[in-house]
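Postdoc handover notes: sequence design on the structure in folder B. Input tokens:
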């Protein structure tokens, strides 16, 4: 809704008439808007930012995305366009509040349904490990909206970790969400603790599957997020399930598998989550 309002705010405002193209792929995070400005409109980027602030009083700062998200921390390059020069804000979702810094740690408002879905499928008393927890969004939503016992929440980005510690305080889930700083493959003390493991990082999920299986208390659920090409959502889901089954061979005996398309992430490319239940089969 706010995205549509932003697009309308630009329509007809500039010569050439197509400044609304600047809003392809817009993200609104709290009171900060991040837009992609096409090359042909770069000279007008500050005016575009000002115009958005005038038309949408709830926005306090506008930035432009300058680089794609990087591979490890998943942080994107941004340039200030208009309004306050600050990159940190509070984002509210599902009764939770998240402190976010758009220049230092990954955050996507587009995963809100998926976070609620994950909270909805947790069973009371469960132990979970979130291997790529970011600022704590999945873990905190699960702790607030379900009766999950504890979620160990790992991230290797020190800035994301610090924000996660703050978000745990803000949302009063201390002791139930346990922030951990480091590489998700290195937590020997977590081996055998989990009923459920989340892997919300498509670039590493497959390579780290063996570590996820080690964190299981013999059997449990592993949620693997992947980017998959496909002519249709259905094809992408099918391919994702096959890929997980293939990789699980000889380490994880899967007895239940299901999947859903989380979102489209490019031309004929989808983010798919594969929910798999099985028994660890590690020698
Ligand atoms: C796509 S983000 C997901 C964050 C969070 N789940 C969310 O949706 O807001 C992936 C996160 O994994 C972290 N990360 C990347 N490689 C890692 C590794 N080897 N071990 C632990 N965390 C890692 C990044 O710093 C980033 O915060």
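Designed sequence:
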């Amino acid at each position: 809704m706010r995205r549509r309002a932003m697009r309308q705010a630009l329509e007809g405002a500039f010569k050439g008439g197509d400044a609304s193209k600047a809003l392809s792929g817009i993200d609104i995070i709290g009171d900060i808007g991040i837009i992609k400005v096409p090359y042909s409109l770069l000279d007008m980027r500050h005016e575009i930012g000002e115009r958005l602030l005038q038309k949408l009083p709830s926005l306090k700062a506008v930035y432009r995305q300058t680089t794609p998200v990087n591979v490890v921390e998943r942080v994107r390059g941004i340039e200030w366009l208009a309004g306050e020069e600050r990159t940190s804000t509070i984002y509210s979702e599902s009764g939770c509040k998240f402190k976010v810094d758009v220049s230092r740690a990954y955050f996507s408002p587009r995963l809100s349904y998926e976070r609620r879905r994950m909270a909805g499928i947790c069973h009371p008393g469960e132990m979970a490990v979130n291997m790529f927890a970011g600022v704590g969004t999945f873990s905190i939503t699960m702790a607030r909206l379900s009766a999950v016992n504890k979620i160990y929440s790992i991230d290797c980005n020190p800035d994301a970790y610090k924000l996660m510690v703050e978000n745990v305080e803000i949302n009063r889930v201390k002791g139930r969400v346990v922030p951990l700083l480091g590489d998700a493959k290195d937590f020997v003390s977590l081996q055998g603790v989990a009923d459920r493991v989340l892997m919300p990082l498509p670039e590493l999920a497959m390579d780290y599957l063996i570590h996820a299986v080690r964190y299981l208390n013999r059997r449990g659920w592993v949620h693997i997020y992947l980017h998959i090409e496909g002519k249709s959502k259905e094809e992408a889901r099918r391919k994702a399930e096959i890929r997980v089954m293939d990789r699980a061979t000889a380490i994880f005996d899967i007895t239940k598998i299901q999947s859903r398309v989380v979102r489209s992430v490019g031309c004929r490319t989808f983010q798919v989550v594969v929910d798999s239940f099985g028994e660890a089969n590690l020698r």
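Context for whoever picks this up: Residues 92-280 form a domain with the Rossmann fold fold (CATH 3.40.50.150). Don't rerun without checking with the PI first.
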